[in-house]
Request: fold
Amino acid sequence: MVTRILVVDDEEDFRNLLVKRLNRKNFSATGAASGLEALDFLADRVFEVALIDLKMPGMEGLELLQRIKKNQSETEVVVLTGHGTTESAVEAMKLGAYDYLTKPVNLKELQVLLDKAVEKASLKRQNQGLKAALERENVADQRLIGTSRSIKQLKQLIGKVANSDSPVLVIGESGTGKELVSRALHYESHRTEAPFIVVNCGALPEQLMESELFGHEKGAFTGAQERKPGLVEMAEGGSLFLDEIGELPLGLQTKLLRFMENGEFRRVGDNRLRWVETRIIAATNSVLEQEIEAGNFREDLYYRLNVVKIAVPPLRERGEDVPLLVEHFMKKMALNKQMSSEALKELQKYHFPGNVRELRNLVERGILLSEGQYILSEDMFGCVQKKVTATTLTLKEVERNHIECILRRNNWNKKRTAEILGISVRNLYRKLENYEIEPE
Ligand SMILES: Nc1ncnc2c1ncn2[C@@H]1O[C@H](COP(=O)(O)OP(=O)(O)OP(=O)(O)O)[C@@H](O)[C@H]1O
Ligand SMILES: [Mg+2]
Reply:
């Protein structure tokens, strides 16, 4: 991350020299000639460190320090003092300065100090890094299972693009593993030590979503009692996973686009510009092209997101992966049960409208309902496969029967049925309409 430093000193030559040198050292430095000018800059954007000369005409350094500590407490302040003025340096430390340096400034010393100040500012992030590491321990559990051609290609593509910083758009039906793919992209990248932050774009109304994503200042709205950094800040140096991107409110789409273009954003209720580097991974199971047609999604945002597109194939197109997935889920859930070969065959033929999630739910259900050691297909599918021979049915008919059966078994409770099928309630309603399924 680039550290932004504000150099406040009335001596023009010294100030310019310092700014130039700092910029050469990979800092992003800006010069201000007076306390007032400094406040202008600070009101405009966030600086990690302010380097302040104590002796200036007009507003003195100590006063500026106090104002910063009051209004921009995230900024660490380092003061510069002349020879033999240790008293004011001590005073500055009491008022909350991070440290002081005596003029003439030794550049090496300054660099060490700045690095330390920056480190302090990023302590919070290290905590998050720790969390990321903990999460990574579970990653073995989150491997992409499958040896079909399409899964192999998928893994190859992930390996190829993981280390680039370009945005990725992950598309695919519900339950195919879009989130798993997105996590793989993160953990196989150089960002693996930094956080992987998940944002569910459809979870909140626009205003709350904005504050969730970009943060807010104290008092930005009723209920905002404390200032809160946004999820974009949490994801600094890591990846920001925007799930269900198609559901992001239009107003926020504009703000997201701007953020994606230059990393700039503002917290709600704060005029200051902030800057963060993170990789964007977005996922959706809606057809964004249609959402654009319908005026629900910004075309320019779509093009910005769609730099790399990864399509996760539906499970019905990779039946050979089914046994491996079954084994994987069985291992996790039940050590003493086995899938009967008859049941496995049925699974391999099945249409899986809810994809891998549905398979997992079916296995879980089979484990629960099976009486002996072996799971039979009727334990998972119930009435469907018993009444008719599945081979005489089209896939659509199998799906229709299955949905109807699960609905019946659950007293036509749509929420519960959608859960078992591993699809959204909205998706279930669509299917009920298409298949003209109605309660008897
Ligand atoms: N290839 C796979 N190997 C192992 N587990 C998988 C695989 N694909 C998906 N899963 C598992 O299936 C479940 C659904 O996956 P995930 O949440 O990633 O799907 P999704 O595409 O994001 O679904 P939705 O569109 O509903 O959000 C998860 O429990 C996930 O771990
Ligand atoms: Mg998902």
